[in-house]
Amino acid sequence: MTMNNRPHRRVILSALSFVVCSAGLGIMPSSLAAVSEVRVGVILPLTGDKATFGQESLNGLKLALEKAGKESPTLNLKVEDTQGTPSGSAAAVNKLIATDKVNVIIGEVASSNTIAASTAAQSAKIPLMTHASTNDTITKGKDFISRICFVDSFQGAVMAKFAVSNLKAKTAAILVDSDSDYSRGLRDSFKSAFTAAGGKIADDLVISYSQKDRDFKTQLIKVRRALPDVVFIPGYYTQVGSILRQAKELKLTTKFLGTDGWDSPDLFKIAGPAASAGHYVSSHFAADDTDPRVQEFVKEYKARNKENPGAMAALGYDAGFFMRAAVKKAGSNDPSKIRDAISAMKNFDGITGTITLDPNRNAVKPAVIVQTSEKEFKFLTRVNP
């Protein structure tokens, strides 16, 4: 992962609050009367090589809170820039807990960063809910950690099934980011599901690269010699864009399969015309989904931010309303009660799908499959768990 040496930066969002009312939730008004404020820490990569993920998440969260209103009790945000690193994420959590005395935390995006952050939050018994980190291990053994996104064992299996059933793929290669817990977990889940369905992945076609790499031609030449039916790249848009561009330069025409780490408008800026080849990607959301609620969100987000939302914006939006509902249910700013309320959430109707947390505090929810075009992702289908 690229390190960013700029000073750790704190961004404070003031004048943001939301309504916490008892209507329809079975909470007595008196139980909420004593709650004047819920302090919510937010940890996101606002600088560094995943900054578009952080900014989109924050834009979605801000839109949700603005729509929710300003009546008491207030939800006061303290936003910390993690700089997109594990050490920055851990430092951000420690700062929010020790100095800002937050009651609950939302974030991070990248799984390696959330793993580092969750260790600090769990130790302090402050609930941390990630909206976007999908590595299966994040919540294991940590009862204060939860997520509202699907897990990689589901996402990897979705793409393996799509490759076999829809693309009729019999052979595959995998390009894996050796620096990323996210990428390694998806490598394993895709490989297991693909081979179980009768596909073949040769050992020498599970090929590693580093986040520090900028030249991927050695790995791609190896793929070109083998000519697998598909190439699975569970990576982030910064590296994937370069891989797609260099694959086009090498005249490699194999279809690429990707995951939610691709889902950034910067992918198309980096990849250029190479993105137009129609590669297939699993994600949480598609802006051209015809669902009326999705289209309402897209319209509101675009009016506010002058661009279409990506998956991280939709997940940030869902995180805002999900946390609002959990605090309503808790009727308290006590971290343990908020933790319990988050864990008990069922059938939350989000923009990214209906969300129910399982006993391990992981979201059971659908994925979508999108296809790359010249400048954007196009919705193909929704896959239920």
Would you give an account of this structure?
With 385 residues, the protein is of the alpha/beta class. It has 2 domains: 10-150 and 291-365, Rossmann fold (3-Layer(aba) Sandwich), CATH 3.40.50.2300; 153-283, Response regulator (Rossmann fold), CATH 3.40.50.2300. It is built from 12 helices and 16 strands. The chain has helices spanning 29-33, 51-68, 86-98, 111-124, 152-165, 181-196, 217-226, 237-249, 266-271, 292-305, 311-330, 335-343, and strands spanning 10-13, 37-44, 74-81, 104-107, 128-130, 145-147, 172-177, 206-209, 230-233, 255-258, 280-283, 348-350, 353-357, 363-364, 367-372, 377-383. It has a 7-stranded mixed β-sheet with strand order 8-7-9-10-11-15-16, covered by helices on one side. A 6-stranded mixed β-sheet has the order 1-3-2-4-5-6, with helices on both faces. A 3-stranded antiparallel β-sheet has the order 12-13-14, with helices on one face. The longest helix is centred in the C-terminal third of the chain and has 20 residues, at 311-330.
